[in-house]
């Protein structure tokens, strides 16, 4: 996706060999026009699939997830990392370890917002080691919902989340696949995509 | 806003005399069409104000905030409740006590995403006692940004956040103002708005 690759090129910052900071447009400041284009692209990619629900995790997945849900005209459900006092029971849960925040979260979704037979598109801002994706998959299995595929804004192909999901037979569509961040250089999986 | 009042009427649940659960369409499952209409309404209300940035707090503010930013064609910035390892310095912070989660959070925004002279519209899903709004105001003051006003999806007028902000001279636009949740009944501030 050209606009996304341009944004990464112009505003992304490589902080270490495995950290790409995109807080200029994705996960702290957010570019709404880019989010809308991302949502429309995921909707286009999965347009044949009769998706009934888009699922993501708070917080950074909400932007791309909401725009995808709007383009597909289905509800968005975002998994919660903390339970509020209005959400204590009848929930599906899974444990997710975050390497960037160095902590384990229990994510949860209310029974009410997933139905058996739901055809779910899971959206997230990043795919790295796949912990969040596996947590959401576990919740989909508990709910007997069908996971149709994953829409990922930025995949770090040098970590193994993408491989794990594809090896399990899931369709994973990543709008930017980064092969390497070595020496502060962003190399894409398909070099011809580099802007 | 008619669509919002209908949604509250049909899908909102009064849990106690002061808790309105709207996880069917606003803060767990999210209705993207409603979010888009909310964003367009806030943009219309503040269309004369030359807003340069929309600011909110993760997570439930992101949906309405992003749609408002899209309609105004300006960036969204969402305050973080936890610092990631990519965000440790050069941040404005404020303490916010959450009555629904019974905990104090330190919210933060990077210096980079607020500029002196920014004309900021603050968006949030709920306004109750005003703690989150006051925390964001403190950050705007630290950044020397100008707070033009507040766009609130649901204001609980029987708590004092709205009064505090209006007494300080801020413009507060709430799409649903709830006067009372007593005995499981939702009463609006302007009864003629009730659907």
UniProtKB/TrEMBL annotation, chains A, B:
<keyword id="KW-0808">Transferase</keyword>
<dbReference type="GO" id="GO:0016757">
    <property type="term" value="F:glycosyltransferase activity"/>
</dbReference>
<keyword id="KW-0328">Glycosyltransferase</keyword>
<comment type="pathway">
    <text>Purine metabolism; XMP biosynthesis via salvage pathway; XMP from xanthine: step 1/1.</text>
</comment>
<feature type="domain" description="Phosphoribosyltransferase">
    <location>
        <begin position="36"/>
        <end position="156"/>
    </location>
</feature>
<dbReference type="InterPro" id="IPR029057">
    <property type="entry name" value="PRTase-like"/>
</dbReference>
<dbReference type="InterPro" id="IPR050118">
    <property type="entry name" value="Pur/Pyrimidine_PRTase"/>
</dbReference>
<keyword id="KW-0963">Cytoplasm</keyword>
<comment type="function">
    <text>Converts the preformed base xanthine, a product of nucleic acid breakdown, to xanthosine 5'-monophosphate (XMP), so it can be reused for RNA or DNA synthesis.</text>
</comment>
<comment type="similarity">
    <text>Belongs to the purine/pyrimidine phosphoribosyltransferase family. Xpt subfamily.</text>
</comment>
<feature type="binding site">
    <location>
        <begin position="128"/>
        <end position="132"/>
    </location>
    <ligand>
        <name>5-phospho-alpha-D-ribose 1-diphosphate</name>
    </ligand>
</feature>
<dbReference type="InterPro" id="IPR000836">
    <property type="entry name" value="PRTase_dom"/>
</dbReference>
<dbReference type="InterPro" id="IPR010079">
    <property type="entry name" value="Xanthine_PRibTrfase"/>
</dbReference>
<comment type="subunit">
    <text>Homodimer.</text>
</comment>
<feature type="binding site">
    <location>
        <position position="156"/>
    </location>
    <ligand>
        <name>xanthine</name>
    </ligand>
</feature>
<keyword id="KW-0660">Purine salvage</keyword>
<feature type="binding site">
    <location>
        <position position="20"/>
    </location>
    <ligand>
        <name>xanthine</name>
    </ligand>
</feature>
<dbReference type="Pfam" id="PF00156">
    <property type="entry name" value="Pribosyltran"/>
</dbReference>
<feature type="binding site">
    <location>
        <position position="27"/>
    </location>
    <ligand>
        <name>xanthine</name>
    </ligand>
</feature>
<protein>
    <recommendedName>
        <fullName>Xanthine phosphoribosyltransferase</fullName>
        <ecNumber>2.4.2.22</ecNumber>
    </recommendedName>
</protein>
């Amino acid at each position: 996706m050209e606009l996304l690759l341009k944004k990464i090129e112009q505003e992304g910052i490589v902080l270490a060999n495995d950290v790409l900071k995109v807080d200029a447009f994705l996960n702290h400041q957010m570019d709404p026009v880019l989010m809308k284009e991302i949502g429309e692209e995921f909707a286009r990619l999965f347009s044949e699939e009769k998706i009934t629900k888009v699922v993501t995790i708070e917080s950074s997945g909400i932007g791309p997830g909401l725009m995808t849900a709007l383009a597909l005209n289905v509800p968005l459900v975002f998994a919660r990392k903390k339970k509020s006092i209005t959400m204590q029971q009848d929930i599906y849960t899974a444990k997710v370890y975050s390497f960037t925040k160095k902590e384990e979260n229990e994510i949860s979704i209310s029974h009410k917002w997933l139905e058996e037979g739901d055809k779910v598109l899971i959206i997230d801002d990043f795919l790295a080691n796949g912990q969040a994706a596996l947590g959401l998959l576990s919740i989909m299995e508990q709910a007997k919902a069908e996971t149709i595929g994953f829409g990922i804004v930025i995949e770090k192909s040098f970590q193994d989340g993408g491989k794990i999901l594809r090896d399990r037979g899931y369709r994973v569509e990543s709008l930017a696949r980064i092969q390497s961040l070595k020496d502060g250089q962003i190399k894409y999986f398909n070099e011809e995509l580099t802007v």
